[in-house]
């Protein structure tokens, strides 16, 4: 029994030795040595060891062949590794040898780059510094030559542009410190020159006035057939010599806008008159201009203007103060008036040659002061009584009235401009309804309406024009009466009065009324109906121009067929206004069409459907309804205008639909989308066939849609064989289809077909369609290349 327990104990100890970590085996062995069966345990241990050896030997025998094979493979790999190592070493040595030259070149390149950078930096610094030195040298030359305004400009450029770019250099700091000193020097020098100028014109104002008056008298004596109208206190120089040398020119268009507005030039027998300031020949105004420019650049313009006006007011009081013995001699009066004329000649010249140094209000203020002083002086010295007592001639008063005639005409033009604008603003741009014979006679008495067919119609009826036409025609006659009234007591001949009235009326037509009509046409929110009425109105006004001719002939008693008689320009004025209204109609109509087209919302990837299942797009139905109602208003328009508007609208619709197809943002288009667009195009063609505007021959209006029609037919019928075979022939069925357009549309369909093939790879029909599209694209590209070469 004890031996069994011992054997079990030894077995347990052996299992514990096999399964326990070697660090914890000490207590187990100690229990063996402490027991009495040590020898027996050793035998069991040896038996267990032999057993494990047998198992190890079995395992080794089982895996020995794989181990041998692995060792063999490892030996082979070692040989290849040795070869690879040798090759890597050789390659490294060769690379090191060849890289030495490259490293040397890189070092040289690095040095060159450093030198290049240094050179570029130097050039850049010199580029910024040299302009500073050159500009400073130019500044010194300008200061030495006393060209102070250019010097000030140079100073500004130097300070704000060149010096900041140059950087922080000592010479730049010195220049910057000198700039305020130079600016102060320029300002003081300019003011000194201005004071000298003011003193000079104060001393010589009588000489200036005498010269201006003599020039005016000389102008009137040059040609008695030409009535000159110089601006107040400004002389004019005749251009007869220039006209003789350059040939005769027509009608006063060669001058500047200033001379056209301020001068009172009447063109008689193709001669031109040119305004020449009387003071310019005697006075050098450069100190004023120079000082004004300098103070403006310095930001002290207000200071300069106040100083100049203050000094001139002081001089005005001195000039207007008469001498105590002025009334004793005629020379005293002459000298007094010469000084006044000279003063205002200078101020007028400054007013028209400077911008804002003196304004019209300032000159009028001085003139009011002068009038009060002159009246007081004349009353004190009994000038009027002296003139009446000694029988001085008063013909110059009539000359003055003639000179003021053009100014009076300008005032009338401004007044009638306001009148025409008010009439247009109050007009409802609708035909005038008349319900009785009395109303009809009332309007026909205001405007010469001659329409036998309209007279035959029963009441109530409508006059084709709006209220603007009779009102405008009456205002034209009122203007003619106003011109006639002014010239009644000027001792002019009937021919001169007729010429004056016709020229003033031409200005009213070509400038005032024309601008008012264009104002009405270009006004915001003007509708198509209003533009149509403008065309009708201008047509009737154009037809009434010969009545105006007869009206002027009746009041002046001058036959219109005289050689030198001026013709009215009313026909061209109303034609220009009508053409502007027509152009505005075309533009507005296309803009309205664009608003409808913006509502188009095509599903470019829609699947193919039967044509019977498709309906016209809602936006196009609304657009066609709008066009029908719009063209119904065009019935009173000239046929050509209505036809042009209709053709323009159809072309715009066709072009816009084509642009929708070719829009770069639309990358894919299905055949279903083309069918929908084809249905919409059929609706457009039905509208064109219905003849919305009379006058088109046959299917002329359909030609506007021919490009889009042929393109859609080509794709919906897939008739590529006919297109490719007949391309370039005059009888080609698809003559208007551009191959570039067809190619672009096919590319978009190709993308759609390719996507469908990817989604349904096993549908043979889709794959065949993709191949067919690719083949057509290839042939189109070949066709394009052939015709380009």
UniProtKB/TrEMBL annotation:
Q: Which UniProt keywords apply?
A: Exocytosis, Transport
Q: Which InterPro entries match?
A: EXOC6/Sec15, EXOC6/Sec15_C, EXOC6/Sec15_C_dom1, EXOC6_Sec15_N, EXOC6PINT-1/Sec15/Tip20_C_dom2
Species source reads Cyprinodon variegatus
Q: Where is the Exocyst complex component EXOC6/Sec15 N-terminal domain?
A: 44-213
Q: Taxonomically, what lineage is the organism?
A: Eukaryota, Metazoa, Chordata, Craniata, Vertebrata
| Annotated region (Disordered), positions in chain | 237-263
Source domain of life is: Eukaryota
In Swiss-Prot or TrEMBL terms, this protein is called Exocyst complex component
Q: Exocyst complex subunit EXOC6/Sec15 C-terminal domain location, by residue?
A: 396-748
Family listed: Belongs to the SEC15 family.
Record Gene3D superfamilies: Dsl1p vesicle tethering complex, Tip20p subunit, domain D, Exocyst complex subunit Sec15 C-terminal domain, N-terminal subdomain
Sorted alphabetically, the Gene Ontology cellular component annotations on this record are: exocyst; plasma membrane
Q: What GO terms in the biological process aspect are recorded for it?
A: Golgi to plasma membrane transport; intracellular protein transport; vesicle tethering involved in exocytosis
Query: Function, please?
Result: Component of the exocyst complex involved in the docking of exocytic vesicles with fusion sites on the plasma membrane.
């Amino acid at each position: 029994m004890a031996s069994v327990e011992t054997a079990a104990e030894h077995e347990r100890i052996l299992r514990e030795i096999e399964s326990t970590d070697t660090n914890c085996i000490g207590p187990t062995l100690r229990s063996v040595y402490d027991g009495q069966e040590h020898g027996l345990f050793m035998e069991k241990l040896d038996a267990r060891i032999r057993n494990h050896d047998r198992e190890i030997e079995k395992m080794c025998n089982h895996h020995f062949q794989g181990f041998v094979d692995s060792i063999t493979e490892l030996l082979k790999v070692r040989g290849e590794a040795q070869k690879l190592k040798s090759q890597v070493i050789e390659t490294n040595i060769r690379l090191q040898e060849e890289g030495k030259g490259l490293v040397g070149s890189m070092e040289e390149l690095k040095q060159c780059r450093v030198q290049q950078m240094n050179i570029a930096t130097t050039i850049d610094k010199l580029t910024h510094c040299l302009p500073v030195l050159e500009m400073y040298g130019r500044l010194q030359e300008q200061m030495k030559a006393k060209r102070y305004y250019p010097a000030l400009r140079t100073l500004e450029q130097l300070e704000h542009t060149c010096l900041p770019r140059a950087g922080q250099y000592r010479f730049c700091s010195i220049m910057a410190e000198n700039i305020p000193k130079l600016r102060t020097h320029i300002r003081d020098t300019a003011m000194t020159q201005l004071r000298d100028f003011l003193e000079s014109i104060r001393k010589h104002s009588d000489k200036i006035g005498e010269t201006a008056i003599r020039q005016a008298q000389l102008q009137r004596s040059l040609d008695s057939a030409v009535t000159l109208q110089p601006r107040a206190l400004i002389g004019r120089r005749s251009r007869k010599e220039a006209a003789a040398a350059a040939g005769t020119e027509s009608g006063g268009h060669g001058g500047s806008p200033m001379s056209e507005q301020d001068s009172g030039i009447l063109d008689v027998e193709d001669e031109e008159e040119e305004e020449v300031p009387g003071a310019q020949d005697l006075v050098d105004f450069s100190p004023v201009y120079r000082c004004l420019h300098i103070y403006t650049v310095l930001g002290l313009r207000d200071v300069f203007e106040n100083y100049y006006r203050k000094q001139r007011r002081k001089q005005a009081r001195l000039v207007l103060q008469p001498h105590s013995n002025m009334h004793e001699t005629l020379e005293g009066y002459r000298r007094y008036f010469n000084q006044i004329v000279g003063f205002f000649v200078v101020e007028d010249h400054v007013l028209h040659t400077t911008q804002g140094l003196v304004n019209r209000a300032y000159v009028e203020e001085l003139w009011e002061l002068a009038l009060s002083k002159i009246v007081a002086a004349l009353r004190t010295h009994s000038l009027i009584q002296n003139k009446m007592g000694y029988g001085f001639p008063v013909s110059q008063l009539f000359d003055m009235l003639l000179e003021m005639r053009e100014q009076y005409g300008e005032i009338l033009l401004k007044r009638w401009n306001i009148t025409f604008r008010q009439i247009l603003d109050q007009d409802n741009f609708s035909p005038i309804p008349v319900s009785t014979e009395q109303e009809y006679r009332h309007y026909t008495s205001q405007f010469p309406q001659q329409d036998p067919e309209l007279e035959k119609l029963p009441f109530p009826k409508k006059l084709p024009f709006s209220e603007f036409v009779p009102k405008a025609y009456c205002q034209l006659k009122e203007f003619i009466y106003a011109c006639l009234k002014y010239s009644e007591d000027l001792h002019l001949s009937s021919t001169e009065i007729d010429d004056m009235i016709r020229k003033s009326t031409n200005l009213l037509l070509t400038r005032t009324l024309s601008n008012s009509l264009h104002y009405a046409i270009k006004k915001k929110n003007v509708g198509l109906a209003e533009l149509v009425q403008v065309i009708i109105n201008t047509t009737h006004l154009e037809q009434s121009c010969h009545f105006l001719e007869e009206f002027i002939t009746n009041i002046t008693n001058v036959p219109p067929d005289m050689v030198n008689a001026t013709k009215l320009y009313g026909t061209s004025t109303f034609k220009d206004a009508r053409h502007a209204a027509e152009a505005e109609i075309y533009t507005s109509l296309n803009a309205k069409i664009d608003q409808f087209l913006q509502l188009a919302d095509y599903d470019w990837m829609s699947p193919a459907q039967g044509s019977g299942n498709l309906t016209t797009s809602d936006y196009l139905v609304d657009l066609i309804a709008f066009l029908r109602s719009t063209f119904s208003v065009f019935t009173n328009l000239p046929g050509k205008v209505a036809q042009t508007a209709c053709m323009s609208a159809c072309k715009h619709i066709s072009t816009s639909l084509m642009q929708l197809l070719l829009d770069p943002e639309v990358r894919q288009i299905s055949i279903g989308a083309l069918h929908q667009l084809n249905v919409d195009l059929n609706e457009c063609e039905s509208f064109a066939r219905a003849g919305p505007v009379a006058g088109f021959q046959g299917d002329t209006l359909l030609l506007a849609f021919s490009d889009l029609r042929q393109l859609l037919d080509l794709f919906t019928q897939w008739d590529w064989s006919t297109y490719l075979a007949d391309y370039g022939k005059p009888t080609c069925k698809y003559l208007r289809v551009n191959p570039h357009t067809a190619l672009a549309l096919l590319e978009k369909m190709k993308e759609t077909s390719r996507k469908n093939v990817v989604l349904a790879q096993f549908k043979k029909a889709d794959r065949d369609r993709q191949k067919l599209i690719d083949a057509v694209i290839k042939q189109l590209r070949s066709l394009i290349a052939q015709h380009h070469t």
